[in-house]
Amino acid sequence: MNNKNKLYPKFETEGKGFFNQIKKVEHPFLQQLVDMNAAVIFMGNEFTVYGCDLVGVLLFIYDDSVELECISTDPAKRKNGQATEMMKALIEVSNRTNIPITLRTANVTGNGWQMMQHPVVALGMNKKNKIPTAKLRKFYEKFGFKVIEKVKAGYRMIYTPVVVTTPEINS
What we know:
171 residues; alpha+beta
């Protein structure tokens, strides 16, 4: 979706296994998520975030934005607000770091993984083997995302951070 090169900021984990949580990362958006106690993991050249009762988020990092590639919850736990809570956290981090979030609504079936589904995609798969997207535009719009353009089977959208300024007090 994005023509820019992905960034792979340096990070530290507590161990050397495949699913070790990142404890420190040289990117403000990802570090904010770590500081909020989200489980941030790097696998398959992608950053995956787990939080809010096992909501999975797949993020791509670019020099001027973060791409929300996929967010999903276990189908048995849908309609309980977990994805909403995760989106609120992502919006809060975007506002704190002044880093926009981009995305594209579309049917997700595999994210290019050939041998297996990415764990975030697999978490949200339904019986038709894709994550339902019919209502995603309205879901994202309620968090302040705006449509950039209509694309095949969906929309490109962006959340532009709201920078909160505090008035200066002259003394």
